[in-house]
Amino acid sequence: MSRISPDTQLEQWIDRYQNLIYSICFKLTNDYFDAQDLTQETFLSAYKNLAFFDGRNERAWLCTIASRKCLDYLKHSGRRQIPTEDQFWISCSSSGPQPEQAAMEEALRRELYDCCQKLKEPYRQVALDYFYHEFDAGEIAARTGKNLKTVQTQIYRAKAMLRRLYRREDLFDG
Amino acid sequence: MDNMLRDRFSLEEMAADPEEAERFADFLEEQGLLTAPANLKSAVLDRSRQADILIIAGSNRLSKRAELIRYSMKIGLAMACSIAFLLAAPDFQNSVPHLQSSDDTPIHVEVSQKLQQLTGKIRLFSKSLLNPEVFFHD
Q1: Positions in chain A whose pLDDT score sits under 50
Q2: How confident is the model at residue B125 (pLDDT cuts 50, 70, 90)?
Q3: CATH of domain A101-174
């Protein structure tokens, strides 16, 4: 049995499970950016602790890490109302998951677009390019003629602003 | 809302039990997964190459290897002690009084005799290993 390198293993896991882990994190936090961060943390934690993985069920292992990350986040964030029994009631429909999921993705993207539009320039355009159109920083720097470091700094700041916008909207939604 | 099902998942249980976490994952997959942002993979890979992550990952791998080496050494030491004990043990065969064999020899006595014969043979063999001339030319 050939052993693959940790870097290759990480890449394979991301390819196989990123949608699943992201869905778990989003379902538990209901926040676009926090879900991204928690997904990243899940894969990085798996990478750091790869030596302690028994090799039996990687899917279950990654899901457990994601759940722990979400639990820690919810306990420490102080922004979210945690159910008193530490349990989540998740309602699901008994029929037709696919159309509903597509609608949910569309709603997410619409919300993201609207939040990006609320930013001032130059952050608005950078946010749209990076978060909505999903160009990477290098591509944005090439098309706008800006310095890569400048673009990266703007992305970082835009992300912080978008987080605040998301959270403010969450408070209003209740 | 009439057809709405309510499934209950405990986040505490999901964090502690991989089976529960996997059950939640199955549930989400049935519903349909969201698409992760396109830059997520590159962000994770870039972050994984940073020094702090590499150091932790590397030290965890080392500690796992050290644990394995320590375990192997324990086993090796136990085996070495066993062999040393066999070599250093007194000659039981000669010190135990010879038991008269009879048709009514109790089982425990027979077993004891057999064990003595076995240990005697092991001692002879181990002695011959220390004296290769005897081993090769005897």
Answers
A1: 1, 79-97, 174
A2: confident
A3: 1.10.10.10
* Predicted pLDDT at A136: 85
Q: What is the pLDDT of residue B5?
A: 32
DSSP characters for B60-112?
Answer: HHHHHHHHHHHHHHHHHHHHHHHHHHHHHS--HHHHSPPPPP-TT--HHHHHH
Chain B residue numbers with beta carbons less than 8 Å from the beta carbon of A100 are 31-32
pLDDT at A169 (0 to 100): 61
Tokens of B88: 């250093």
Question: Which amino acid does the sequence have at A112?
Answer: L
Q: What is the pLDDT of residue A84?
A: 39
**Which residues on B lie below 8 Å from A134 (Cβ)?**
37-39
Domain map of chain A by residue range? 1-81, 101-174
**How far is Cα A52 from Cα A46, in angstroms, rounded to an integer?**
9
B9-39: b (≥16 Cβ within 10 Å) or e: bbbbbbbeebebbbbbbeebeebbbbebbeb
Contact B34 A22 (CB under 8 A): yes
- Tell me which residues of chain A, numbers 11 to 40, contact chain B at a CB-CB cutoff of 8 Å: 11, 14-15, 18-24, 26-28, 36, 39-40
The CATH class that applies to domain A1-81 reads mainly alpha
Give the ipTM of the model, two decimals please. Answer: 0.75
Work out the minimum CA distance from A125 to partner chain B, whole angstroms: 17
Residue A54 C-alpha, separation from nearest chain B C-alpha, in angstroms: 12
Flag whether the pTM goes above 0.95.
no
Q: pLDDT tens across B55-102, in order?
A: 888 888 888 888 888 889 989 999 998 988 888 776 555 555 555 555
| Residue ranges of A 82-141 with Cβ closer than 8 A to chain B | 86-95, 97-98, 100-102, 104-105, 108, 130-131, 134, 136
Q: Which of A71, A93, A97 sits opposite B15 (nearest CB)?
A: A71
